[in-house]
Amino acid sequence: MESSLEQLALVKQKIGAAEQETNRPVGAVTLVAVSKTFDAEHIRPVIEAGQRVFGENRVQEAQGKWPQLKAEFPDIELHLIGPLQSNKAKEAVALFDVIETVDRDKIAAELAREIERQGRATRLYVQVNTGSEEQKAGIGPREAVAFVKHCREIHGLAIEGLMCIPPVDENPGPHFALLAKLAREAGVEKLSMGMSGDYELAVAFGATSVRVGSAIFGSR
Ligand SMILES: *Cc1c(COP(=O)(O)O)cnc(C)c1O
C-alpha cells in the first residue's frame, strides 16, 4: 500500500514530464487509475492521496466496492473501461460517470434509454478496435466516424471521446495516431489511450486521459 502511493506519485510525475516534453499544457492529461481486481482497502489510500478518477472493467465487480467509496468521496469520477453487455446498461449508467466502451448500436440505444430514464449526465466514449482484432471489443476503424455520427443523430448521445487498446504485440504508436486522426474526423475532443507500458508515448500522441493500473497498484 505504501508502494502504491509511491507508484502513484511516480506515474503523475512521468505524465507531467511527458506533457512538458511534448509541449502539452500542464494538466492536459487525466490519470485514470485502473483499480480492477483490487479491493476497497487497496483503493482507499490512493483516494486519500488525492486521486479522484478511477477505471474498472467489470460492472458487477465495480458494484461491489464503488457505491460505498463514492458515498465517502462524492467527487470520485468512475470510468467503465471494459465491455458492456446491454443487460447491464441500467447498472452501468447508475454507477459510472464515464462509459468508454460504446461500440455498437444496441449498446448506444440502451444507454440512451437509461440516461434519459435515470436523468444522469453520463459521459460517453466510443471504443475503436484500431488493430481490427477479431476477439477484441470496439467498432472497426473504418466504421468509427460513421458510428459516432450515428450515436449522435439516431440516439441523441453526446459522444465526447474515443478509446482504444492497441494489440499487445505491436508498436502502439500507429494505433494512437490512428485514434487521434479518427477523433479529428469525428469531431470529438477526448482521447483515452495509453496503459502502464505506454502511457508516456500516448501523451506524445495527444492522449487526454491514460488508463494506468499495474504501474500504480502492482501486478494482478
Ligand atoms: C486493465 C486495463 C487497463 C490498465 O492496464 P495496465 O497495463 O495494468 O495499466 C487499461 N485499459 C483497459 C481497458 C484495461 O482493461
- First-residue to last-residue Cα separation: 14 Å
What binds here, in terms of ligands, is:
pyridoxal-5'-phosphate
Structural class: alpha/beta
Strand content: 15-25%
In this structure, how is the largest beta sheet organized?
8 strands, parallel
Average pLDDT level = 97
Q: Gyration radius, to the nearest Å?
A: 17 Å
Keywords summarizing the entry:
220 residues; alpha/beta; 8 strands; globular
Describe the protein.
- There is one protein chain.
- With 220 residues, the chain is an alpha/beta fold.
- It contains nine helices and eight strands.
- It has helices at 2-21, 40-48, 59-72, 89-95, 105-118, 144-155, 173-186, 199-204, 214-217, and strands at residues 30-34, 53-56, 77-80, 98-102, 123-128, 159-164, 190-192, 209-212.
- An eight-stranded parallel beta sheet has the order 7-6-5-4-3-2-1-8.
- Strand 3, helix 4 and strand 4 (98-102) form a beta-alpha-beta unit.
- Helix 4 (89-95) packs across helix 5 and helix 5 runs parallel beside helix 6.
- The longest helix is centred in the N-terminal third of the chain and has 20 residues, at 2-21.
- It starts with a helix and ends with a helix.
- The model has no long low-confidence stretch (mean pLDDT 97).
- Pyridoxal-5'-phosphate binds at residues 34, 36, 57, 81-82, 165, 195-196, 211-215.
